Amino acid sequence: MNHCSFKGRTRSSRFERCGWGLCVLLMLSTTASAQQAAFYPMGRQYPVSEPVSFDYPLHVTNNGTVLGLLATTNPARDLGYTWTLNGGHELLQGFGANDIAIVAYDADATGNYLVGQVVNTMNNPVIWIDRKPHNLIELMPNHHAIATNITPDGTTIIGTYMILQSGNEMFMLNDLKQFAFLGGIPGGTGSITGGGPASLGGISNDGLIGFGAAQTALGQEGAIWRRGNTWETLADLSGVPPYFASFSDSSADGRVACGRSLDASNAMHNIRWTRFHGWQDLGQGAGIQAMSDDGFILGDKQDAYGAAIWNPRDGWVSLREILEVQHGVFVNWLNLGSVLAISDNGEYIAGLGSNESNELEAFLAKLPAFCYADCNADKELDIWDYLCFIDEYNKQSIYANCDNDGRMNIFDFICFGNKFAEGCP
């Protein structure tokens, strides 16, 4: 047997002597990097002359660019914008003076492609390429459409298509030219091509699977769509009709979804869903708005503590605590009210709060990347994280499903080993 030390730790005698493999892990112990956190008020100096009733972030990119909308009064309009730390609010370009709404909901990985809608005499689904608007579909009278999601590579767009007095249905557009309806829910009515209406809140990066909601005879159910126009309904958290649930976002690989659902007492709850764990109750709240690409960072709980962030290791932690207690970033605001968007890499958070003057204002927060391999959250990667992971696996916890594939098996250990080897960002 070989002797090995514990890098300044005192532990029980059963590990004072260890074999070769254990010693290797101990020698590989590293300290998790200390990334900087930051809080950025987005300001109330808007590039419009009319009064602004609120500023609502909708999406944030991996470099901290925020997409959002300004709701104005006199006249009442929704004006989409991009916001950057150096440039502030910059309005999106529309088609003319008759535009009453110009909104971008999503962006590709580069931020060069934005998708949304421009409303004038009709709802036009629009893509902005290098900030210039282009109609995605030539619409006939009484036809309207909204583009809501785009994959990171910019090749697949989904949205909602509506025909007055005929119904509505989700559509997909591939390579900006191949249009297809996504079908309806069997046994229902109200979609354009037949079946009941359904919607999607998030799609996988490859565009093969999406998560949303479907109207059925039993209520509004959480729903999954798969390429080939196949829908699967999932009831809701309570499992008792009438159902009410919806998914707002999904992970990049399509293995995890988040959203909201009523419980058996008709209280609204935050939920996370995977194939293995099914509906995961994350406590009462208005519903989870956004998720990181890996499915590990969610927001927000919207309880008495205000905006909060969830991860499978720590559960819910208030955003103010993360900034002020964990990272020493003081926030001189009365309240951080809600998280509305999370970047795909999980490092940028956009939301709304009450500033020091008790005015509603949007904000952007920069957080250090979540280090999954630091299982015991001690800011070091060592053998104790492996032992922690084994304990979580034995408990069949959400955290231990490392690869989010919906199964607990040896591949979760391989996944954890790979994340340990990669180290903390």
Helical stretch count? 4
The chain-level structural class is mainly beta
Rounded to the nearest angstrom, the radius of gyration is 23 Å
Q: State the helicity in percent bands.
A: under 10%
Described by the principal axes of the CA atoms, the overall outline is: globular
End-to-end separation = 34 Å
The overall pLDDT, averaged over residues, is 88
Query: Largest sheet at a glance?
Result: 8 strands, mixed
Uncertain parts: 1-28
Please indicate the percent range of residues in DSSP E strands (runs of 2 or more). 35-45%
What's the β-strand tally?
Answer: 32
Structure description:
It is a single chain. This protein has 425 residues and is mainly beta. It contains four helices and 32 strands. The chain has helices at residues 20-27, 319-326, 383-394, 410-422, and strands at 2-3, 17-18, 30-31, 38-41, 52-60, 66-72, 77-84, 88-91, 101-107, 113-119, 123-129, 132-135, 143-150, 156-163, 167-174, 178-181, 198-203, 209-216, 219-226, 230-233, 243-250, 256-262, 268-274, 278-284, 290-291, 298-299, 308-311, 315-318, 335-342, 348-354, 360-366, 380-381. Strands 5, 6, 7, 8, 9, 10, 11 and 12 form an eight-stranded mixed β-sheet that branches.
Brief write-up:
The chain is mainly beta. The protein is 10% helix and 43% strand.
Secondary-structure topology with pairs:
Elements: E1 2-3, E2 17-18, H1 20-27, E3 30-31, E4 38-41, E5 52-60, E6 66-72, E7 77-84, E8 88-91, E9 101-107, E10 113-119, E11 123-129, E12 132-135, E13 143-150, E14 156-163, E15 167-174, E16 178-181, E17 198-203, E18 209-216, E19 219-226, E20 230-233, E21 243-250, E22 256-262, E23 268-274, E24 278-284, E25 290-291, E26 298-299, E27 308-311, E28 315-318, H2 319-326, E29 335-342, E30 348-354, E31 360-366, E32 380-381, H3 383-394, H4 410-422
Parallel strand pairs: 7-9, 19-21
Antiparallel strand pairs: 1-2, 3-32, 4-31, 5-6, 6-7, 7-8, 9-10, 10-11, 11-12, 13-14, 14-15, 15-16, 17-18, 18-19, 19-20, 21-22, 22-23, 23-24, 25-26, 27-28, 29-30, 30-31
